[in-house]
Every structure is written in C-alpha cells, then in structure tokens.
Specification:
The strands form two sheets. A six-stranded mixed beta sheet has the order 6-7-8-3-9-10, sandwiched between helices. A four-stranded antiparallel beta sheet has the order 2-1-4-5, with helices on one face. Strand 7, helix 7 and strand 8 form a beta-alpha-beta unit. By secondary structure, the protein is α/β, with parallel strands linked by helices.
Length: 231
C-alpha cells in the first residue's frame, strides 16, 4: 500500500530524516519505534503531507505521488491522527466526526454505525463539546474522525500517550479489528513498547533520523527490537 524510497526531510537548514526506505502493507500494522527525538513524528508528518519532504519518493497503492499538501494526501486516502489528537474543542462530538466528510462524496456524508460500535462512548456523547471529553475519549474521537474518511492508509502518532489503561486496551482492540478487516495499511508510532510489540506485524526502528533496523516480527526478536529502542 505505502512505499517510501530514500525519503529525506529538513526543518529549515537542519536535516531530520536521512534516506528512509520502507513499506507498509495492506492488512498489516507497521510500527515505527525509537527514542524521543529520532524523527518518528517527522516521518509521519512527511507521509501525511503535513510537512513536505525534502526528497525521495512516496507511492500509495502503486501510484507515485509528488510532494502534496496534507489535504490532497487526505483525498488520496491518507488519514492522520496526530500526537495530541487536535480535535475541535468547541465543536460537538458529532460535528467533529462530520468534519471527516470533507474527503467523501455527498452521498457518503453520514456517520456509519460501525463508528459507534467501535467507540460506544462517542454515541452517548454526540452532543457534548469535544473539549469537554477526557483525554482518552478525545483520542477515541480523533481515531473515529480519521476513519470517517474511509482511508487506505491510517497514520497513528502515539495513540496511548496520556491515556488511562482501560482506554489503551480499547484502542488496541480497535486497531486489531481494523487490521483484521484488511482494508487499509496502518502505520503506528508508539513509545509504549509492550503495546506496540503485541500489535505490530513489522517494525521500523529509527535512530538519529535513519533506519537502524527493520523487519517482520518473525525476523526480529523481541530483545532485538527492545535493544534498538533503548538509549
């Protein structure tokens, strides 16, 4: 589904990513791991178009894409759930969900029942403002809003950050369900090692903006991955 070749990224004169080449397959979870500051979020921003890459190629479902802004990447089927969630605090839960309609034709402008099946708490809180939800509820809302657009590639940046354990478990179950459906590729950036290791089909471990190691769960032992993400 997703293929990167020799991707680079700069912030001003500072180079952040160096020659990143990786793939994320449909029906699989690719987990990007590493310590703080190694470029994980920058990689997700480059893929989503939130921050333009400096060089390299990106293809989605076999289509080579130029350097496109985030809204055009969304139209191509890329959904991004950023670190910090970034829901609209003054809009209701339903209005937040409806903001995902932007990438859909008019006849698809409805919230599917599956969204509320995956996140029952959102059905109960449809008329509550997003800013009044707990952190865990906001995270569920952010993921649900991304799913409204029916993405082919789902990018999740630190979905467990600051979330209570029971909500982490629920989010893990949703991610597994999405993998089982097999309709999208999922790229997960995650610091919570046990959560990430349990979910991942393949790993990409970054260090100082470069790939230190990558491979499937069958190719890399748990100890190898843990060593790669330890300072």
């Amino acid at each position: 589904m997703l293929k990167l070749n020799d991707l680079t990224l700069h912030y001003g004169h500072s180079q952040i990513l160096y020659g990143i080449s990786m793939e994320a397959a449909q029906g699989q979870i690719t987990c990007v791991m590493g310590t703080n500051g190694v470029g994980k979020t920058s990689l997700i921003k480059a893929i989503s178009g939130t921050h333009p890459r400096s060089g390299g190629t990106l293809s989605l479902n076999g289509e080579n894409l130029g350097i496109l802004p985030a809204h055009k990447m969304a139209w191509k089927g890329v959904a991004y759930v950023p670190q910090g969630r970034e829901i609209f605090p003054l809009l209701t839960v339903r209005e937040n969900l409806e903001s995902g309609f932007a990438c859909l034709p008019a006849d698809k402008h409805f919230v599917p029942d599956e969204i509320f099946e995956l996140f029952p708490v959102l059905k109960k809180m449809q008329n509550r403002r997003g800013g009044d939800l707990s952190g865990g509820q906001q995270q569920q809302l952010a993921i649900a809003r991304a799913l409204i657009a029916k993405p082919r590639l789902l990018l999740l940046d630190e979905p467990t950050e600051g979330i209570q354990p029971n909500i982490i478990q629920q989010i893990g179950e949703v991610i597994r369900h999405l993998r089982t459906k097999g309709e999208m590729a999922i790229v997960l950036v995650e610091q919570y090692f046990e959560f990430a290791y349990e979910l991942a089909d393949q790993f990409v471990v970054l260090r100082r903006g470069e790939i230190l190691m990558q491979g499937t769960k069958a190719q890399l032992t748990k100890d190898q991955v843990l060593q790669g993400v330890t300072v």
